[in-house]
Amino acid sequence: FPWETIREYKEIRFLYYDGIAMISINRPEVHNAFTPLTVKEMSEAMELARQDERVGVVILTGEGGRAFCSGGDQSVRGHGGYIGDDHVPRLNVLDLQKQIRSIPKPVVAMVAGWAVGGGHVLHVICDLSIAAENARFGQTGPKVGSFDGGFGASYLARVVGQKKAREIWFLCDQYDAQDALSMGLVNKVVPIEKLEETTVEWCRKMLANSPIALRMLKSAFNAELDGQAGIQELAGNATLLYYLSDEAKEGQRSFLEKRKPDFRKFPKFP
Ligand code: 2NE
Predict the structure, then answer these.
(1) Pocket of ligand 1, candidates 30, 63, 75, 143: which has the most ligand atoms within 8 Å of its Cβ, to mutate?
(2) Which pLDDT score, from 0 to 100, does residue 18 have?
(3) What ipTM was predicted for this assembly?
């Protein structure tokens, strides 16, 4: 596909094609492990994709075909977090996780090769995951002195069930693409040469559907799990829809025209 670069970055690629934004981690020499800079760039790209009215769907992936993402780069892990050029320890991937969940557009993980550790959590959080046959999944935290007890644990348990989620974290085993499909961890498995084509095809199906319906559904799925923050997201979308109505506009106009609002003409639905 004729992807165009939206913006140049050091550690990611950020591309656009036909309603789809693609954010691709570009550190294949370390199986796309992320540093604080990788995550900062991904966060910025995700925000740009959110603001870009051309974009209806986002693909998250990794370069090279051998890895989606191998989690935090252990060579820059320091005292209290992952350390960048400013010498400050950070766990900024947690902010990126929240962005993936709250962007009101579907995010699809396109997984070839390794999706492990914090990289596994990123695909788990995406709305959909499409895997190549060479994909390998797993959590490694307890082996390397780390864990993600946030979405990495609780949302994983919602996806695969409590027993399986505990197995994944406690044993730190690796699972192939068919294992992942059978536990509902991915939506589809395809040969690697069909991965991009299938992912774009799925994106096109979503792009053909009502963007507001998808937006409402994403926030509704989140609301059930995310407590007050989830309700805030869903309610924000309700406000958006209300602002589109003549009834809400009458309230605003009456204020600006310094008169009493006339809401009597609006229907009182059963
Ligand atoms: C993914 C896995 C199992 C692949 O093994 P293999 O044998 O196929 O590849 P290899 O040789 O291990 O990896 C290739 C190169 O990538 C580097 C390796 O060190 C190696 O470099 P060279 O020896 O060629 O120089 N590499 C791979 N993953 C890396 C990483 N995460 N950081 C830095 N360099 C990495 C195998 O590579 C593996 O087990 N990787 C580590 C996975 C891992 O434990 N990730 C961190 C989990 S913790 C986390 O992500 C996290 C969290 O728990 C909470 C908050 C935030 C983050």
Answers:
(1) 30
(2) 98
(3) 0.98
